[in-house]
């Protein structure tokens, strides 16, 4: 077990008991607002999301806000990714951290215990369960980079004891803040004075990606390293996968086919492996937040599972890693960005396909409430016909009166039969999705 003197030195470095904190981060207001609502409840708060999406920064922003109203000695933070802790990973380690903090800093008052990347500790759910059920004055806020692991382990022992928040890479609004451009008025014509700068930043945003760590240095080599790290650390090591080449090749293939329909049977033929292996490996890739799948909507859940899914990537920069012709890739990048924004806002989304196709339909409770098409341009008659027919078929199918088409630059309101069709530029929609 780690020496407690060394452990306390690590904790001193990571916490703010004896030093003035320096927080040079943009304020992720949407996440903080939701998490703050539950900071004084008994529930264990679970913050999960992909590597480098800003979970650690979010914890520090939360700590900064809390320090304005509570004694900073009540806050215990540990980042388990610290290399000095690696060889000591165990349940005894997180108990030793807590004991050392109690002995040195806060012997008897309530404590807010922040544990960053808790999935590194095997069996962590047992520790959380025992502490939760005890009479100790302790509140847990934990993070992790693996959605399936956390949901599986927490559901086993901690049902009803957790609240989960998913953190994504920067939204366009957050990206603009990072680039020192704050939008105070989102109305279309109010944005006109800043339109050139706005579009320039948008072009970088949708092509280079929005993983915070790579925004200032979006070199291909760094994104390749990110992809490799997720594959090796979050998948190969965690699940003891022997066929590293297969999981990596599958990930690259899915990146090159982002926004396209895929089926497990076709993938099994491409890679000459069983369908069960494909299902398992895609599950691993999704659990590490590299990809998401989108089901075709059906009122029958069984039919949803039997149809092909569309695949989307966590970041446009990763898609561009495997792209050969950028001009042909633009529409896919736009569609992927719309998907991510809908996911970021916790929408329940599907794609629609009967005779025609609509990119996204949004379900709330038991009802479809919106339909969205994504197209770079409606200038070509053939493209315009396809996009409108797909959207109107969806509007008819789900008894909707209004639909949305997201393009590169067009802003227009149309009336087609009894339907109202809004056409909006993607950069504008990202700033004002209620428009």
Briefly characterize the structure:
With 435 residues, the chain is an alpha/beta fold. Among the domains are: 164 residues, 3-Layer(aba) Sandwich (Rossmann fold); 104 residues, Arc Repressor Mutant, subunit A (Orthogonal Bundle), CATH 1.10.10.10. 45% of the residues lie in helices and 18% in strands.
What would you say this structure looks like, in words?
45% of the residues lie in helices and 18% in strands. Among the domains are: 4-167, Rossmann fold (3-Layer(aba) Sandwich), CATH 3.40.50.300; 220-323, Arc Repressor Mutant, subunit A, CATH 1.10.10.10. The strands form 3 sheets. A 6-stranded mixed β-sheet has the order 9-10-11-12-14-13. The protein is globular, with a radius of gyration of 23 Å. The protein is α/β, with parallel strands linked by helices and 435 residues long.
Write the layout of secondary structure elements.
Blueprint: H1 4-14, H2 29-36, E1 44-48, H3 55-66, E2 75-79, H4 91-104, E3 111-116, H5 124-133, E4 138-144, H6 147-157, E5 162-166, H7 172-178, H8 195-208, H9 220-239, H10 244-256, E6 261-262, H11 264-271, H12 275-287, E7 291-294, H13 301-306, E8 309-313, H14 316-321, H15 326-344, E9 348-353, E10 357-364, E11 367-374, H16 381-397, E12 402-407, E13 412-416, E14 419-425, H17 426-431
Helix pairs in contact: 1-4, 5-6, 9-10, 11-12
Q: So, CATH architecture of the domain at 4-167?
A: 3-Layer(aba) Sandwich
The end-to-end distance, rounded to whole angstroms, is 57 Å
Number of strands: 14
The computed structural class is alpha/beta
């Amino acid at each position: 077990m780690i020496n407690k003197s060394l452990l306390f030195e690590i904790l001193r470095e990571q916490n703010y008991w004896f030093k003035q904190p320096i927080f040079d981060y943009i304020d992720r207001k949407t996440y903080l607002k939701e998490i703050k609502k539950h900071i004084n409840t008994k529930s264990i708060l679970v913050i999960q999301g992909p590597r480098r999406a800003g979970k650690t920064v979010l914890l520090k922003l939360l700590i900064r806000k809390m320090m304005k109203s509570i004694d900073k000695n009540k806050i215990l933070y540990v980042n388990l990714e610290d290399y000095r802790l690696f060889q000591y990973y165990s349940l005894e380690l997180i108990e030793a951290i807590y004991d050392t903090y109690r002995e040195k800093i806060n012997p008897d008052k309530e404590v807010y215990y922040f544990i960053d990347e808790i999935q590194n500790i095997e069996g962590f759910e047992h520790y959380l369960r025992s502490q939760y059920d005890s009479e100790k004055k302790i509140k847990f806020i934990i993070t992790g980079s693996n959605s399936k692991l956390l949901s599986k382990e927490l559901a086993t022992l901690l049902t009803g004891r957790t609240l989960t928040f998913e953190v994504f890479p920067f939204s366009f609004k957050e990206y603009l803040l990072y680039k020192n451009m704050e939008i105070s008025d989102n109305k279309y014509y109010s944005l006109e004075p800043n339109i050139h700068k706005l579009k320039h930043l948008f072009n970088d945003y949708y092509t280079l990606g929005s993983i915070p760590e790579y925004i200032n240095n979006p070199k291909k080599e760094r994104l390749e390293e990110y992809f490799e790290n997720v594959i090796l650390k979050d998948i190969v090591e965690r699940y003891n996968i022997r066929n590293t080449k297969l999981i990596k090749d599958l990930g690259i293939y899915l990146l090159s086919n982002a926004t396209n329909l895929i089926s497990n049977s076709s993938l099994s033929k491409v890679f000459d492996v069983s369908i069960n292996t494909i299902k398992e490996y895609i599950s691993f890739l999704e659990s590490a937040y590299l990809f998401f799948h989108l089901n075709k909507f059906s009122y029958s859940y069984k039919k949803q599972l039997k149809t092909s899914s569309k695949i989307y990537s966590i970041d446009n920069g990763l898609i561009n890693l495997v792209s050969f012709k950028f001009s042909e890739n633009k529409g896919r990048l736009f569609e992927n960005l719309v998907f991510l924004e809908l996911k970021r806002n916790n929408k329940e989304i599907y794609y629609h396909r009967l005779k025609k196709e609509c990119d996204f339909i949004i379900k709330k409770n038991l009802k479809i409430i919106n339909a969205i098409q994504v197209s770079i341009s409606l200038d070509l008659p053939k493209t315009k016909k396809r996009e409108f027919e797909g959207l109107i078929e969806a509007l008819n199918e789900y008894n909707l009166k209004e639909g949305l088409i997201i393009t590169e630059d067009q802003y227009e309101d149309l009336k087609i039969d009894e339907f109202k069709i809004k056409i909006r530029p993607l950069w504008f929609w990202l700033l004002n999705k209620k428009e």
